[in-house]
Write a structure and sequence with these properties.
By secondary structure, the protein is an alpha/beta fold. It has a single domain, classed as Rossmann fold. 45% of the residues lie in helices and 16% in strands. It has helices at 20-30, 41-46, 49-56, 68-82, 97-100, 110-133, 160-183, 198-201, 206-216, 224-235; strands at 8-12, 34-39, 59-62, 86-91, 137-147, 186-192, 246-249. Strands 3-2-1-4-5-6-7 form a seven-stranded parallel sheet, with helices on both faces. α7 links the parallel β5 and β6. The relative contact order is 0.15. The mean pLDDT is 96. It binds nicotinamide-adenine-dinucleotide. Nicotinamide-adenine-dinucleotide is lined by residues 12-15, 19-21, 39-40, 43, 64-66, 92-95, 119, 146-148, 192, 194-195, 197-200. Nicotinamide-adenine-dinucleotide binds next to α1, β5 and α8.
Length: 264
């Protein structure tokens, strides 16, 4: 019996074993939850999510989180599979073509910029809107989206992803109020330390930034597993009155100016 025993959840964004969503999926399953996985068809073909699904008996449903028709079909299929409403949803979706193509913020390609906002932020709006229309999340459900400190501070090279994260966090607050009134579902953000993943790697400075934040954070960087355990806690009934919050899984970095013992 784990703290998510009897709960059913939908997890967006596991690509390979480095993905934060992959760690969250495993932690939720270990805590007793039934998990449905989703990613785009191309990510399923390119990544290893298929093996995660097979190994742990999880349903895997292709879906582009920017497409309302896909999302409607996904929520319908996931509910049929688990035999009712979902208790939790993880949004671990992000991509910036400006970052990938090494376009500086001041020379952004605006088509890419709009894609960044659509994939990395508006997808949360579309997910929550679709779930609300289908009434697919149970009372006292819990939704978590993953963000980064670049939403509120300048982080060199984080580029249009900083704008996307600011929008993502705002969407979480707005829907937190709507869902709270609807059926007490919580919507929170986990703001995670730099973590070596595919999306993290597209930020050119990740290696340097990873070492820097590790040195400056009183607890060192939070690992992907630390992030996953925090998500499990937020999905559980232990945090039923926490909503519309950005919670930092960052070893204290965001509150530190000078670190003891740092050797930079
Ligand atoms: N890695 C870090 O340093 C770090 C730090 C803080 C927050 N985050 C956030 O964590 C989340 C997960 O990223 P990650 O670091 O695990 O990298 P990742 O590359 O493993 O995950 C990103 C996922 O987004 C998916 N995705 C992209 N476009 C999509 C679409 N249209 N529809 C559905 N899925 C789509 C990708 O297929 C991939 O699985 C992201 O929101 C990211 O910004 C990452």
């Amino acid at each position: 019996m784990g703290i998510l025993s009897g709960k059913k959840g939908l997890i967006f964004g596991a690509l390979d074993e480095r993905s934060l969503a992959w760690h969250v999926a495993l932690a939720c399953a270990s805590a007793g939850a039934e998990v449905v996985l989703t990613n785009t068809s191309s990510a399923i073909a390119l990544g290893t999510i298929d093996s995660l699904a097979k190994e742990h008996g999880m349903l895997l449903v292709p879906c582009d989180a920017t497409k309302l028709d896909d999302l409607r079909a996904l929520f319908t299929r996931a509910q049929e599979h688990v035999g009712g409403k979902l208790d939790f949803v993880l949004h671990g979706v992000a991509q910036s073509m400006n970052l990938r193509r090494h376009k500086g913020y001041e020379e952004a390609n605006y088509n890419y910029f709009q894609q960044t906002l659509d994939v990395s932020a508006l997808s949360l709006h579309k997910i929550l809107r679709t779930a609300l229309e289908l009434d697919a999340i149970s009372e006292y459900g819990s939704v978590v989206a993953l963000s980064y400190l670049g939403s509120e501070r300048y982080c060199d090279g984080y580029n249009d992803m900083g704008d996307a994260k600011a929008l993502l966090e705002s969407i979480a607050r707005q829907f937190g109020a709507i869902y709270g009134a609807h059926n007490k579902t919580r919507v929170n953000i986990v703001s995670q330390s730099p973590t070596p993943t595919k999306a993290g790697g597209s930020w050119g400075g990740l290696d340097y930034w990873y070492r820097y934040t590790d040195q400056l954070s009183p607890l060192g960087n939070a690992s992907a597993d630390d992030c996953a355990q925090l998500c499990v806690a937020l999905f559980s009934d232990l945090m039923r009155s926490v909503t519309m919050q950005t919670i930092y899984s960052d070893g204290g970095f965001g509150r530190t100016v000078l670190a003891r013992g740092a050797r930079l």
